[in-house]
């Protein structure tokens, strides 16, 4: 929440200082305006806890809970189970991941056909990766083809995946990115989001959204004023305007 109020402070400063030409705002003026914005420590702590819980840092979340007194909005024990599912997908153990998801909540896959298809697609990719061609073809025909007949987008994704089998050198394959680790991470992220949604929790942490808002606000302000910017988000240091 703190970044939200900083952004609001920046917008307020621009409105006050803007004229027909760009107004130069000194560091002293800018810092005074930012210091006038009050942010509750409780809001800061909730923002940190939201990030730790959503991203699955269970040990850090537990330690932060004890040190700050900030209670998470879900049982921290469920984070461990969720991370086990995510790790299984990232390691290519898709069958194990599906079992773990069903142990958590069978309705997650029952009510999300797209997620289930993507998990099955990832199973097919892993079979192809391991050179199990016959098993891959059989799995595609029995498990994925029927779903493709019911959904055109599924069919297109299946065709792209099966196309991997037509190339001996996947580095020159137009769909070779399916074998990249990034594909596993994409599927793992989708599963993670679905589990969070089933637990009535935001699927994305709030902090990245606030950072995006900060960047957007500064880009808007660049057209109206010259002011101390935050160019390095990791340090949040104000840099003097270039005059």
Automatic annotation (TrEMBL):
InterPro entries (alphabetical): CRA_dom, CTLH/CRA, CTLH_C, LisH, Ubq-SigPath_Reg
CTLH domain sequence ranges: 78-135
SMART domains linked: CRA, CTLH, LisH
Protein's recorded name: CTLH domain-containing protein
Species the sequence originates in: Nelumbo nucifera
């Amino acid at each position: 929440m703190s970044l939200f109020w900083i952004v609001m402070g920046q917008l307020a400063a621009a409105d006050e200082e803007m004229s027909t030409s760009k107004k130069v705002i000194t560091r002293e003026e800018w810092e005074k305006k930012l210091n006038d914005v009050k942010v509750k420590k409780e809001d800061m702590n909730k923002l940190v806890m939201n990030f730790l819980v959503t991203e699955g840092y269970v040990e850090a979340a537990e330690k932060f809970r004890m040190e700050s007194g900030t209670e998470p909005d879900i049982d921290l024990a469920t984070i461990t189970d969720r991370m086990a599912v995510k790790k299984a997908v990232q390691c290519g153990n898709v069958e194990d991941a599906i079992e773990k998801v069903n142990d958590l909540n069978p309705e997650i896959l029952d009510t999300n056909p797209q997620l289930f298809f993507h998990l099955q697609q990832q199973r097919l990719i892993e079979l192809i990766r391991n050179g199990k061609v016959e098993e891959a073809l059989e799995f595609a025909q029995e498990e994925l083809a029927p779903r493709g007949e019911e959904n055109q987008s599924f069919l297109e994704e299946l065709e792209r995946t099966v196309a991997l089998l037509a190339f001996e050198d996947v580095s020159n394959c137009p769909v070779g990115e399916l074998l990249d680790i990034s594909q596993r991470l994409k599927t793992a992220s989708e599963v993670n989001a679905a589990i969070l949604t089933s637990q009535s929790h935001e699927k994305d942490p709030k902090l990245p959204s606030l950072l995006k808002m900060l960047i957007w606000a500064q880009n808007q302000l660049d057209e109206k004023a010259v002011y101390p910017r935050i160019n390095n988000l990791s340090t949040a240091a104000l840099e003097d305007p270039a005059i």
